[in-house]
């Protein structure tokens, strides 16, 4: 009735492998991913691993091709999909529960590395898939796909014009423009010693002036008629 859609940020545990659904013949790529939390231990002054979540991820059709050609063990990934549990019984007749996810979108975690995107080439649809092939693998029997029948493998699917792996340029440091230099002043400039001598000479001339010449120039008040 309700689906549990969520995002998992973690690392690839197992290399993606192709499987074939026995009942429908559909191909799907499966791999396992682990998401582990980390916390800081103040007593030992270091980071330690916390709780961990391990999920089996299934990808279909074009997403499966991208997964098989792009992901390797240890890659940091971000996965969005539908999470559910599957109950099963092992060889000793013990009940088991596994967590599985039908992925809708998968990508590398660019906070921990860099990547380059290559778009799929458009292809014609040769058949219409039935509703059963659209469903999730929930305990259906599957079998490994032989190497000669695998539609794509790790590293395949890159443009033919690329003869070697792409390189990534290091980010350039931010260049701060230099501050503009001050415009040259039109007034003559002298040495500090000459300016000090000129200041002292002006102060001496002001001190030698008579008191009448140095009186205030305030306007004279006219008498007001009563």
UniProtKB/TrEMBL annotation:
Q: What is the lineage of its organism?
A: Bacteria, Bacillati, Actinomycetota, Actinomycetes, Micromonosporales
What is any Pfam family matched here?
SSB
Bias (Low complexity) ranges? 177-192
Keyword presence, DNA-binding: yes
Q: Where is this region: Disordered?
A: 161-226
> Which named protein is this?
Single-stranded DNA-binding protein
Q: Which GO terms describe its biological process?
A: DNA replication
Q: Which UniProt keywords apply?
A: DNA-binding
Q: Name one GO cellular component term.
A: nucleoid
> Which Gene Ontology molecular-function terms are recorded?
single-stranded DNA binding
Q: Which domain of life is it from?
A: Bacteria
Gene3D superfamilies, sorted: Nucleic acid-binding proteins
